[in-house]
């Protein structure tokens, strides 16, 4: 099972994206775990993350997250702004799965 965590400043705006991604995963038959959190709560997930996707509003923190998580084998990316704004869970899930497969 691929474990995906979405991060934003408060963890609230990504909650709707999680729901949309879960719907897309269910439709596509993918086995994934998708959760959202605020950046300051990310340590609660320990090392149990495959893909870390940042909301566009925290894109400026990408380098910090890469320094911390890439050495642990976690793929880090920023969610496409248009896909995020449109809450396109299907496209965001596809990107997360693409990252996990790299």
From TrEMBL:
Domain of life of the organism encoding this protein: Bacteria
Keywords, ordered alphabetically: Kinase, Phosphoprotein, Phosphotransferase system, Sugar transport, Transferase, Transport
GO molecular function: kinase activity; protein-N(PI)-phosphohistidine-sugar phosphotransferase activity
Domain PTS EIIB type-3: 1-102
One GO BP: phosphoenolpyruvate-dependent sugar phosphotransferase system
Signal sequence residues: none
One Pfam family here: PTS_IIB
Modified residues (Phosphocysteine): 8
CDD domains: PTS_IIB_chitobiose_lichenan
Protein name: PTS EIIB type-3 domain-containing protein
Stored InterPro entries: PTS_EIIB-like_sf (IPR036095), PTS_EIIB_2/3 (IPR003501), PTS_EIIB_3 (IPR013012), PTS_sugar-specific_EIIB (IPR051819)
Matching PROSITE patterns: PTS_EIIB_TYPE_3
Keyword Kinase included in the entry's annotation: yes
